[in-house]
Amino acid sequence: MTMTVDEAGRVLATPSAYADDARFHEALALLRRESPVHRVEQDGYNPFWAVTRHADVLEVERRHDLFLNAPRPILGTAEFDAFNAERIAQGTALRTLIHMDDPDHRVIRAIGADWFRPKAMRALEPRVRELARRYVDRLADLGGRCDFAREVAVHFPLYVILSLLGLPESDFDRMLKLTQELFGGDDAELQRGTTAEEKLTVLLDFFAYFQELTAARRARPTDDLASAIANARVDGEPLNDMDTASYYVIIATAGHDTTSSTIAGGLHALMTHPDQLERLRGDLALMPLAVDEMIRWVTPVKEFMRTATTDYELRGVPIRAGDSLLLSYPSANRDEDVFADPFRFDVGRDPNKHLAFGFGVHYCLGAALARIEVRAFFEELLPRLESVEPDGEPIGIATTFVGGLKRLPIRYTLKG
């Protein structure tokens, strides 16, 4: 049955649609073609404009002075928006980098910036490669069949980011559960509950954990990112409890779930495009390009929202001050005006101007680390991989924000 433009727009506010790759991209292609700046009205959600073309997403990202992250940085239900507005008024809302605008954003971002610069990444790379080998060895130990998403891909990036923070391995399983509950709030299998209050309990658990961590690192500073955050000062004063906990939350969650989605989705893409798998195995020098193609293909962050501070015309469409805009990164990354044959997975794609890390002042702080992790994993895996094929249907997560495959059953043989 043919989809209407309005039905295509509502797909963006339907969590289950993000787990149906074919339907999802059919909707986005229709919007790009017929209504690239489209008003979406979906039951249970406040209205928003869906921005689906690469050039228009870039335009909004560049005008960060006119289009703000606050007060609606991600798409949520109307109930969630009201609940969050109440918490903002009380000063008890999550306040991560994605919730902030300048000048606060610039100051708070700088606290962790040095930990993600090239020099720091070079120092961290041996640990990343050690962990990549550990998880390729785990694949070998699993005996030729596994759910790659659950048993491998979800763990490797978690170990990397929590090692950077300096958390003990005994706490990693707890962090994994909390992260999955936070980003799986719309997925019946992963969510802790369905109401805004029930979902809030996940954040409260995060905060309780990180308040203990902050106290410990302030009493006994160590050489890790957790100490840098705990002991950071702005205008001579330490961060308040909410901003400190929020910083930990964004590092521990965004630095993990996005990369695990890319690794699982990247392997799935290689399996379903065996010519590209053979091409990459035969020329590992292509790996940097292949990594960016995996990131484009998966686009783990599905959207961010912006709020217009003034009347503005975008692609001829009048946007009013106070209107919300959804920046659809998966759509921008399949834009036919920017990518030659955008639905072809090409490990040698060059140039590759994907927007999976955002653009401008809000460009992903951990982009370099994500690239190192994905590259290290596949550089460890491919020389040992003799064969790999699906062993059942992959299953995507229901979400409107961050995610990818939550199940990827595979059958494989490895050397050594």
TrEMBL record:
CDD domains: CYP142-like (cd11033). PROSITE patterns: CYTOCHROME_P450. The keyword Oxidoreductase applies. Keywords: Heme, Iron, Metal-binding, Monooxygenase, Oxidoreductase. Belongs to the cytochrome P450 family. This is Cytochrome P450.
